[in-house]
Structures are given as C-alpha cells and as structure tokens.
Amino acid sequence: MAEISQIRLGFYHRPDNIRALYWVDKITSFLNKKFPKVEIVDSNPDVLVALGGDGTVLEAAKKYHHTSNPMILGLNLGNVGFLTSVRQVKDFLSALDKFFKGKYLIIERMMLTVWVLHNGKKVFSSEALNDVVIENPIGMVDMEVRVGGTMIRKLRGSGVLVSTATGSTAYNLSAHGPIVTPDIKCLIMTELMTHNVPSPSIVFKYNQAINFKIKNFRERKLISLGNGKIKADVILITDGGEPFPLEEQDVVVVKSSQHLIKLVEFEKNYFFKSVKEQFLTK
User: Fold this and answer.
1) 157 Cβ partners below 8 Å, 6+ apart?
2) What's the pLDDT score for residue 228?
3) What does 170-190 look like in DSSP terms, one character per residue?
4) What is the arithmetic mean of pLDDT over 164-191?
5) Distance in angstroms (rounded) separating the CA atoms of residues 171 and 135
6) Record: fold of 112-257
C-alpha cells in the first residue's frame, strides 16, 4: 500500500443517485479531518470509492481498469450489494478508517473479454466482470459451441451465458448455474431455457476460449436498439449493459481478459459470509 500522503482517491456513482452525492460530501469531510493528506481526484485514482449497488461496482470496474486500475472500495447504497466491500451504511466511515490504517485485503477478480465476428471481421468487443449473455428474449436461437476447435454442443433455446466466478452468484445462479468461489479463475457456461434435453453447466479453465456460432433464429425484428434505429432478435449483453445485435452466422468469442479487478475486503471469508446472508437466511 502507498503511503497515505501518496493516496489518490476518487468517487464513482450514478449521476442521479442523491444518496451517493450526500455520501461523497460526508466522506470528503471525514477524510479532510482524519486523513488530510489523502488527495481527492477526478481521474487516475489509486483507490476508487464506488457508491451504489452491484451495478455501480460493475460500471466502475469496466470504466477504470484500462487507466489506473484502482482498488475498488464499494459502499452499498443498492439492494444486494454482493460485490461491495461494505453493505451496511452504519459501517461506511469505520471501514474507511480501517482502510487508511492498512487493515484490509485485496481480492483480485478475473474479467472476461468478448468480441463478435461478422463475416470474419471484428465488429464489436467488450469486457465483463460478471457475465456475457447471448439471448433471444422473445424467441429461440440455435447455436454451435466450439472449444479448442472442437464442437462440444449444439444449443437450442433462449440463449446462453458465460460467467466468471464473480458472476456465478448473479444471472448464472438465477439460471440454476453453480456458485463458484471467486478465487477460482474459470469460465462457466450455462444454457438459458433450453428446448433440448436440459444439460448442466460446464466450467472451463480460464485459458480456454469459447466460440458461439449463431446458426438460426426466426427473424421478426421485435427488439428496438439505438433509439429505435436498429431492429434485432438475438442480442449480446455484457454485464447488463447496452445490447449489441447479432445476425445469423455471427461468431461470438469469449475468453478470460488479461485484466484483473482489485476489490477491497475487510474480513477473511467475506464471500462465504455474503453467500450465507443472501441465500441461506432467506
């Protein structure tokens, strides 16, 4: 950890989050009084305080990892807060006090990189911390799945998702995929609403690339994208972001990214505590 005098701290939150604006002021005042050598910056921070829910942490990770790749300290102002470092508002300032006294852990999380080939040409690329989803929300899509040049499965259903261990507790879990501890670097492939014999999820080693070829779907153009300018049926979504339209014969490639996200935690086995709180005490 850098010396306190060298720490550059930034904030990230959604512009319409009024509670986040309140906490930016409160945290800034706290730091000015207790840790006056901390520099509040708008760019290239060493540590990024993400104020919001899991969606905000995902946005922060994607936005900043190409620049300073800061430690992300998430303060939960959302609902679940599974990715946040602190889930209870009453603990925000005490957690920051611990952080600047060096009482914290850094957990590195794997990201996914994804690109789309149309007629052999790359037309889209992105990264994801949670998952990549190929889906026909109002119909079916046929796909071929290849790993290492070998076709391993033909899919027919609503779609498929590939998640990281971090994303295993998100959409993947809702689709009855497995929970995987975040220290395992892997890719988890889970089918969505399959029309064939239901197949279990497959967990691939992190250095594998998965290719999905869009073979067939009924063209109805019922999904409007880009303010209605683009019509689509099958879409690609990374971390719940803006959809990208897919066409027949497009190939979607998913593999692990070279980038790792650094999330701040304040206690050992925080993941298991989170699982217990969110899923075992309902």
Assistant:
1) 140, 141, 191, 192, 193, 194, 195, 196
2) 80
3) THHHHTTPPP--TTS-EEEEE
4) 94
5) 12
6) Tumour Suppressor Smad4 (2.60.200)
Tokens of 180: 């995987």
Q: What proportion of the chain, given as a percentage, has pLDDT over 90?
A: 79
Mean per-residue pLDDT, 248-277: 86
For the chain, domain boundaries = 4-104+266-280, 112-257
The burial class, CB within 10 Å (0-12 / 13-18 / 19+), for 177 is: buried
Name, in order, each residue with C-beta under 8 angstroms of 194's C-beta and a sequence gap of 6 or more. Answer: 155, 156, 157, 158
Residue 4 has pLDDT above 80, yes or no: no
Please count the other Cβ atoms lying within 10 Å of the Cβ belonging to residue 280. 8
- Any idea which residue has 């930016």 for tokens? 24
199-240 per-position pLDDT tens digit: 899 999 999 999 999 999 999 998 999 888 899 999 999 999
Give the right CATH number for 4-104+266-280 from 3.30.360.10, 3.30.470.20, 3.30.300.20, 3.40.50.10330.
3.40.50.10330
pLDDT confidence tier of residue 111, bands split at 50, 70 and 90: very high
Coil vs helix vs strand at 231: strand
217 Cβ contact list (under 8 Å, min separation 6): 136, 139, 140, 141, 142, 233, 234, 248
Q: Do domains 4-104+266-280 and 112-257 have the same CATH topology?
A: no
pLDDT at residue 175 tops 80: yes
Helix axes 92-99, 18-34, angle to 10 degrees: 40
Q: Would you please indicate which residues are annotated as catalytic (active-site) residues?
A: 54
pTM over 0.85: yes
CA angle, 80 as apex, 234 and 83 as ends, to 5°?
A: 80
What pLDDT is stored for residue 196 in this prediction? Answer: 77
The DSSP code for 38 is P
